[in-house]
From TrEMBL:
UniProt superkingdom: Bacteria
InterPro entries assigned: Cof (IPR000150), HAD-like_sf (IPR036412), HAD-SF_hydro_IIB (IPR006379), HAD_sf (IPR023214)
Protein's name according to its UniProt entry: Haloacid dehalogenase
Gene Ontology CC terms: cytosol
Alphabetized GO MF terms: magnesium ion binding; phosphatase activity
Matching NCBIfam families: Cof-subfamily, HAD-SF-IIB
Organism the protein comes from: Xylocopilactobacillus apicola
Pfam family, one: Hydrolase_3
Length: 267
């Protein structure tokens, strides 16, 4: 029996206009009212999930969301931390040196704030996130020593991302993933969405076999492999489709709702 649904956001639950379709919204609200746990699971900060939590009415006691690709698991209503995994400035020093030596930009993401290291060149990360989180243009030397970070971002172009990926792995103990081909997300070691979901399921006293998870990109792979049913969107990467148990329609075809209807007898 399925008792929980984990959902990546961009290009999975959201359409290309960053909206939840009426069909997807109806399907999720109905299941939530039946007691099924709906877990938004994203690389975004909490502020980036909050509008969708409101829209789906997921701000009740007991509702949980996962931010920063599994780095932070918290209650949706009052942001009580269930699990939190961060990096220190000293842990990121080698990464900064690799970025400086090889001329790729770097943004350091704290819980409610991003430090954009403009000495390395300004990336388009702030433009991409809009006003979901505040940005401060600064230099690495001026970043507070006691600050902690949920991830770092390298965003430039596909060629740079491919080149930088191996350098980043050599510069420190990190997990490197991405929600877009041209963007690398540098996380604490061994952190991914499956780690976040494991903490969430423990909080709910549920098993992975009672979970269905939806995703479209590389940073969803561990989550799909962890879930009892891992579902790749029709617009997912070929690699993700290869590890998924099921493939549904794309994010612009209500793929989430279509698959949930397909397995309606399992709820």
């Amino acid at each position: 029996m399925i008792k929980a649904i984990a959902l990546d956001m961009d290009n999975t639950l959201l359409n290309n206009q960053k909206q939840i379709s009426a069909v997807n919204k109806k399907a999720l609200k109905e299941l939530h009212e039946q007691g099924v746990k709906i877990i938004l699971c994203s690389g975004r900060p909490y502020k980036g999930l909050k509008p969708y939590l409101v829209e789906l009415e997921l701000l009740n006691p007991g509702d949980v969301c996962i931010c920063f690709n599994g780095g932070l698991v918290e209650t949706s209503k009052d942001q009580t931390k269930i699990a939190s995994h961060t990096l220190t400035k000293s842990q990121l020093a080698g990464l900064y040196e690799a970025a400086r030596s090889n001329q790729f930009p770097l943004d350091l993401v704290a819980e409610n704030h991003v430090y954009s290291l403009v000495e390395l060149g300004k990336s388009s990360y702030e433009e991409r996130l809009g006003k979901l989180i505040s940005f401060e243009n600064t230099n690495f030397a001026d970043v507070p020593e006691d600050e902690v970070f949920y991830k770092a971002i390298m965003l430039k172009d596909l060629t740079t991302a491919q080149f930088a990926s191996e350098l980043i792995k050599q510069s420190g103990n990190f997990h490197v993933t991405g929600s877009y081909p041209e963007m690398l997300e540098i996380l604490p070691p061994d952190i991914n969405k499956a780690v976040g979901l494991k903490a969430a399921l423990k909080y709910f006293d549920l098993k992975p076999s009672e979970l269905v998870a939806f995703g479209d990109e590389a940073n969803d792979q561990e989550m799909l492999e962890f879930a009892g049913i891992g579902v790749a969107m029709g617009n997912a990467t070929a690699k993700l489709k290869a590890v998924a148990n099921e493939i549904t329609l794309s994010n612009v075809e209500d793929g989430v709702a279509v698959f949930l209807q397909k397995i309606s007898d399992q709820f």
